[in-house]
Amino acid sequence: MAFMTDLSEHLSNRVQISSDSLRSYVDAVERAFGADVDYGQIVKFYDAEPIGPGRYAPPRVTGAERTVIAGSPDQAHISTSHVERQNLTMRMSMRRVYAVDQRFQQEVRELAGRSFAALRALQSGPAAQDFARYASNGGECH
After folding, report:
1. Which of 43, 39, 34 is nearest to 74 (CA)?
2. pLDDT tens across 115-124, in order?
């Protein structure tokens, strides 16, 4: 509701809004825009979920029913395709960010492991005695 109210306050011209058939959209659009909007809904129908190879592919749209809710929206432009594409783009971008983050975290863990191993080697090997002598002489080599 808050989004629709904010949107209506920033628009000075009559607009066409499209949505799927979620009932709360009807109330939100009506409260925010009143009668000053062309609003339509689209309901898409899909094939049954496939079984077997390719079952993870998105289902095929077999039909769509467009309904005028308020005003006189252009039936040809009642669509949710733009927002569906934007959502897909956002999901793919987030997936890439997640993958980069995971690689970075793995590199940090590997670097920490190598640093710890090097520190342990310094603390326990002959180099540790050399370092102790070096540190006790104020950083001067003899």
Report:
1. 39
2. 888 877 777 7
The Cα 95–Cα 83 span in angstroms is 18
Query: What distance in Å separates the CA atoms of residue 83 and residue 17, rounded to the nearest whole number?
Result: 12
Check: pTM over 0.85? Answer yes or no: no
pLDDT value at 131 more than 90: no
Buried b (16+ CB within 10 A) or exposed e, 17-48: bbbeeeeebeebbeebbeeebbbbbbebeeee
pLDDT at position 1: 80
Q: Closest Cα partner for 77 from 86, 64, 94, 88?
A: 64
66 forms beta bridges with 42
For the chain, domain boundaries: 2-77, 89-136
Spatial distance between the Cα atoms of 110 and 107, rounded to a whole number of angstroms: 5
